[in-house]
Each structure stands twice: as C-alpha cells, then as structure tokens.
Write a structure and sequence with these properties.
With 336 residues, the protein is an alpha/beta fold. The chain folds into two domains: 8-220, Rossmann fold; 236-335, CobW-like, C-terminal domain (Hypothetical Protein Yjia, Chain: A,domain 2). The chain has eleven helices and 14 strands. The strands form three sheets. It has a seven-stranded parallel sheet with strand order 3-2-4-1-5-6-7, with helices on both faces. Strands 8-13-10-11-12 form a five-stranded antiparallel sheet, covered by helices on one side. The protein is globular, with a radius of gyration of 20 Å.
Length: 336
C-alpha cells in the first residue's frame, strides 16, 4: 500500500496496435505529479521497443516481453506488481501499458482474484486509446476473427473501457470522427469519450478517476470471475530483427517506404530504433499498415551499444526474407 495506508491506484492503458498508447504514457509522465509512478510495459514479441520509448525520468520502467499480458505472462504481471509492493520505496501509482493484442478481461481478473493485489491495489480505470483513422479496419478484422471462432480484441478493448480516448483526430475529417464516435458509443454506452491529438490530455483527465465498476465489467463478461479461456489469432505473429551494425540512411529509407507500400496490408504494426551512419541520435519510427512516422530520438550515450531493433507484427510474415532485406540496409562500421 501507499505510505498513508490507502490502496495504490492502477491505470491500465490499452488500445489496438498503433493507437498511440506509448505516446499517451509519455504525455502523462511529462506532467507534474509523475514522481513515484511505476510503469509496466508489455509487448507482443521478445524485444522491448516500447520500453525504450518511455521517457519518464525517475519512474520504474518494467518490461514484460515475449507474450500477451492477458494470458501466458499474466503470472509475470502479478509477480511483478507484488515485487513493486514489497519494495521499501513508496509507489504512488502503477501505470500498465498492454500490448495492442491484449484482451482486457483477464487483466481485470488478475486484480480481482489475486488476494494480495485485491488487498493492496485498486483498479482505477481502463483507458482505451482508439486510432480514429484505423479503428474501422481493426473492428472489421476483429469481426472476421470472431466469425472464424476467435476474438474481436479491438471490440473487447472498447467495450471494457472506462475512458475512451479517440486519438489521431487530425488525420480524419469530422464525418469520420462522428462515425467513429457512433461506433464507440454503440459498443460502450457508458464510457466517457474524449477527442485527443498526439495523445495530449491533462493527467487529471486520465488518472485517479475511480471509474472502474466491477458490475459493468460483469455485464460485459459474466464469466469474468471464473477461469477465462483466451484464444489468439494464430495467423498473427511477430518478427524481430536486431543488428549491431549502422544503417545506410539512403538504402534504409528507400527500403522502408517500399516495404510498407508493398506489404502494408499484412503489416499491422512496425516499430523500430535504428542507428544511422554518421548520426549521433537514434532514429525512431513506427507505422500502421502503409502509414509511417519517424524522427530522431535521444542521442546514443557514450559507451552505449548502437544496436538497431525492428519489430514487425502482422500476418504472412516471411521471417528470413525480412531479415535479409533489413540486413542489406546495414553497413560495416569500420567501412563507414
């Protein structure tokens, strides 16, 4: 518990791939009152790109990789929080950023059924970030998965939310925004909807809301307090390419743009941190389908390994082919 004996509030930030969860997290951590916040970041894949993109100063950043927080590593989530609670230093609040493929129901279940978490933490709110541009596509793909016996994860994330942040509002027109809001209200008539751009919103509009209501969650998932069976779409996989070589800027950017244009339909998410030859700062980029965004990140620290890591999440990913194409963009540093 916190120093005054009150339960520690936990905010879960969810949302489908590329919706802007990490951007929101950074916006929150940059505001006053972030001291004493512990951050848990989960990713679908073995490399923690998102954890490296969290820019908090004195917060705990804990990564849980190589699995979905809603199933195979749920025990890791519980044990991670228990370790946080056992530390002598005070934890003021916990922020959890889930993988974009996480079903919220088992996450909620962890805080209700685990005795220590129930006694010492309080699930404050589930905040779902929605990509205004791509949400219709994610819901359509989810409907296809549901028809095939799987789960509509994007729909579940919306339905369980206490707060819906409609993000990337600058990328669509008012008609599209109104349609998207109608979809959200149809799936979740109770949650508050806020329009945001670049994940920018006052922290007091997201944190310490006391918004989670177990009765509402049970109305969505009556079996929430029993063992839940979570089915993944086995056609979705991740490919991770890591290298210790610098990238030739011309070859890399030419390849990257051609790659997303040619294979964007199958690429749900691409994100990476790469060292460009002759550049003191890392290059950070991410994309959803055929949309790309990138910019220089923080400088490489003295003695820090200039290691490039790129994660691809999607369908029909040819691992060997992707690895060969990425490696063809690198150059030997000795020859640079």
């Amino acid at each position: 518990m916190s120093a005054n004996g009150a339960k520690i509030p936990v905010t879960v930030i969810t949302g489908f791939l590329g919706s802007g969860k990490t951007t929101l997290l950074n916006q929150l951590l940059a505001q006053d009152g972030a001291a004493g916040t512990a951050v848990i970041v989960n990713e679908f894949g073995a490399v923690g790109i998102d954890g490296q993109l969290v820019v908090g100063v004195d917060e705990d950043i804990i990564e849980i990789n190589n699995g979905c927080i809603c199933c195979t590593v749920r025990a890791d989530l519980v044990s991670t929080i228990e370790r946080l609670l056992a530390r002598p230093q005070r934890v003021r609040r916990i922020l959890i950023e889930t993988t974009g493929l996480a079903d919220p129901a088992p996450i909620i279940q962890s805080f209700i059924l685990d005795e220590r978490l129930r006694a010492e933490t309080e699930l404050d709110a589930l905040v779902t970030v929605v990509d205004a541009r791509h949400n219709p596509l994610w819901l359509a793909l989810g409907a296809e998965a549901e028809a095939a016996g799987g789960e509509n994860v994007a729909q579940e994330q919306i339905a369980f939310a206490d707060l819906l942040l409609l993000n990337k509002t600058d990328l669509v027109d008012e008609t599209q925004l109104a349609t998207c809001e109608a979809d959200l209200r149809r799936l979740n008539p109770l949650a508050r909807i806020r329009r945001v751009k670049d994940g920018s919103i006052p922290a007091d509009a997201v944190l310490d809301l006391h918004a989670f209501d177990l009765r509402n969650a049970l109305s969505i998932e009556p079996e929430l307090l029993s063992d839940l069976t979570h089915e993944h779409d086995d056609t979705i996989a991740s490919v991770v390419v890591a290298t210790d070589e610098d990238f030739d800027p011309s070859r890399f950017f030419t390849w990257l743009n051609r790659f997303v244009q040619a294979r964007g339909a199958d690429i749900f998410r691409i994100k990476g941190i790469v060292p460009l030859s002759g550049e003191a700062r890392r290059y950070v980029f991410h994309g959803v389908h055929m949309t790309l965004d990138g910019r220089p990140g923080r400088p490489w620290c003295p003695g820090e390994a200039r290691r490039g890591e790129i994660v691809f999440i999607g369908r029909n990913l040819a691992r060997a082919e992707i690895e060969a194409e990425v490696n063809a963009c690198t150059i030997m540093r000795s020859a640079a």
